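quick one if you have a minute, typing this from the bus. theres a chain ive been looking at and ive put its sequence and its fold in token form underneath. please have a look and point out which stretches look like helix strand or loop to you. anything you notice is useful, everything is just below.

***
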Amino acid sequence: MHPAVAVGLVFGGCCSNVVFLELLARQFPGCGNIVTFSQFLFIALEGFIFEANFGRKRPAIPIRNYFIMVAMFFTVSVVNNYALNLNIAMPLHMIFRSGSLIASMALGIIILKKRYSVSKYSSIALVSLGIFTCTFMSAKQVASDSSSNQEDGPQAFLWWLLGIAALTFALLMSARMGIFQETLYKKFGKHSKEALFYNHALPLPGFLLLAPNIYQHAVLFSQSELFQVPVIGLTLPIMWFYLLMNVITQYVCIRGVFILTTECTSLTVTLVVTLRKFVSLIFSILYFQNPFTGWHWLGTAFVFVGTLMYTELWHSLGPLLARHRRGRPKEQ
């Protein structure tokens, strides 16, 4: 598949996925569990049919390793989605998750004993400053809202602090999972589609622990207003439509990233994903009118510039532009 198609899948799938997630979370902030379960179920079914060949294909990586990876992946997914129930706004949620470079570098130094260049440390410092700026300004907004509401104010701020702690934990756990995947792929080779299937199929029994909450929101979804799907004319509760679109776009997003990893360099993948996050953030602010101050914009700029510095995009573009200039015919 042409890389341009994969880029289109990433932007179209991931950006629209964020929109449907926010539509769900705005109506029912505690719907993270049913969203996560639906995404896992859909991707697991697709993988069972097309990757595992209805269970007849043996995994290339021993199944015991997948159980370890799955425990981390399941925890990260549930905690990230549940954070939306803890007074965390969607823009802050996206910015905070963009700090994965910080966690990856920190754990890489501690666990893998890696060493990085000064430019890498500088980029991470810039990302850290950006996340701190956005978090601090969001804290001021939550504190301001709390002071205007004497009854629920202090409690709302405590829930927000718990949400920040949840996002931090998920960030570190995700980085640890990345290191574990890196060691597995070095030992057994890269099997991304297989890992995608097992990471979504094996955790499904764990959702039994969340069954009451999932059932509660399924009932609430069924009680939402009816919506007629364009073109096909099917009528169903609008929350179920949002959930269906969220699941489909999540699958498109993941497939697009997978195709990119096989067709492009890691630098290109990082750049595309970073730009996608920025577009999603801008859309969330403008369309949903989420509160976003000048300080938030400054922090966002720090995060994305730091991310681009980390990928050393400038060093990669320099020789390319130089070759382009040398290849142009001289003006007469």
Notes: The two ends are 42 Å apart (CA to CA).
